[in-house]
Amino acid sequence: MINKAFDIVNKKVEAALSEQGFTTSSVPSTNPNELVTLYTGETTAYSVIYYKDKKHMVMRTCSMTEDGPDNEWKTVGTWMFDPATDSEREAESIGNDFAESVSSPKITYAPKQQKKKKKNSDDGNGDPVFFSKRLVAVFPELKDEIRAEEDGYEEFRAVTFTRASIVPKVHELLESGDSKQIDKLSEILSAQYSYGDIDTRPLITIVILNSITDESQKEAIRREMSEDLQKAWKAAEKYRGKKVKPAKKKKQSFMQKMMAQSIENQKAYSEGRF
């Protein structure tokens, strides 16, 4: 099943990239845990990988050199795919998501030209938008809500969106008792906690998981949860009931304050207030 699912995903990706002049090659992996397909263009390379142990379908990208990919890979998307419970339908969804990603002007760049933000050594790459899109595998209706959020606001309102659009769906799922979907949600939350950046992790622990108060529902979602996320959730419980605010604007630096004061002084002088 996994080979067929891998082929379904790659057919979608290949169709999107071939229009852009990319060539496709199957990469014989020396690691029996991986399935790999490589796509190369003039300036950019993509690869689709399935990790059998983690049950993750991953798309990555890097820059091309004269000798081939520079191997400084950056993850574009990660999806859970369990051959034991998932079907061709889930593979189609993953393929569509990957194909949409490589067709988007947001990521069809040479990665080295992208402006990088400085981050801590333990910070992941998955931002709140990336995280929210991964949840479409459990809550398909989120796709339109994410698009509306991105189109309606200059910046993605991570905390507000999570509270309004994700938390109610999590509660509804837990109340339904659908163990298969609950396990899938737990696996996605675990994967995205590990992969997520410092803005995403509190969304998972403080906003989503801390909103669950029913003990039986807690036990249900813990069933397939990673040890790391269970520990993080336990540590986050002390914040239950406390307000999680969106990030504040950065404080002015000393130099910015000096510049602002200088401008104010000049204005006061010109107005005769000195």
Question: Can you put this structure into words, describing what you see?
Answer:
This protein has ten helices and six strands. With 274 residues, the chain is an alpha+beta fold. The protein is globular, with a radius of gyration of 22 Å. Helix 1 (2-18) runs parallel beside helix 2, helix 5 (158-176) packs across helix 7 and helix 7 crosses helix 9 (227-236). A hairpin with a 2-residue loop joins strand 4 and strand 5 (68-69). Strands 1, 2, 3, 4, 5 and 6 form a six-stranded antiparallel beta sheet that branches. 48% of the residues lie in helices and 14% in strands. Mean pLDDT is 81; it is low at 105-123 and 247-256.
Mean pLDDT: 81
How much helical structure, as a percent, in the residues? 40-55%
End-to-end span in angstroms? Answer: 80 Å
User: What general outline do the C-alpha atoms trace?
Assistant: globular
* Record field, number of beta strands: 6
Helix/strand-derived class?
A: alpha+beta
Number of helices: 10
What series of H and E elements makes up the topology?
HEEEEEEHHHHHHHHH
Unreliable segments (pLDDT under 50, ≥5 consecutive)?
A: 105-123, 247-256
- Proportion of β residues? 5-15%
Sketch the major β-sheet. 6 strands, antiparallel
